[in-house]
Specification:
This protein has 87 residues and is an alpha+beta fold. It contains two helices and four strands; from the N terminus they run αββββα. The protein has one domain. The chain has a two-stranded antiparallel ribbon. It has a two-stranded antiparallel ribbon with strand order 3-4.
């Protein structure tokens, strides 16, 4: 059975993810997400593994990004993040 920490076969193809698989995974909840410069997939900003469970709040509801259509996923990638200090 595959869990969230087990890379999917297609994730192993990206050279960035292959390099990340040589290190231990962080197993952390992080406040942001990073996208791979090579393949464009979501990845952990700490350990750079591609096998992440990404969630987002849309119109007040929290849900898995894996259920988003391609347009909504692109909208999420295009969002700008701002540090408003103290929050």
């Amino acid at each position: 059975m595959q869990d969230e920490t087990t890379p999917k076969p297609e994730d192993k193809e990206c050279p960035v993810n292959k390099k990340a698989l040589e290190r231990p995974s962080c197993m952390a909840t992080v406040p942001g997400i990073k996208y791979c410069d090579v393949c464009g997939k979501a990845m952990c900003p700490i350990c750079e593994r591609h096998s992440v469970q990404q969630i987002s709040r849309v119109t007040g509801y929290v849900g898995a990004v894996s259920g988003f259509n391609e347009g909504k996923k692109q909208e999420l990638r295009d969002r700008k993040r701002y540090d408003i200090g103290g929050r």
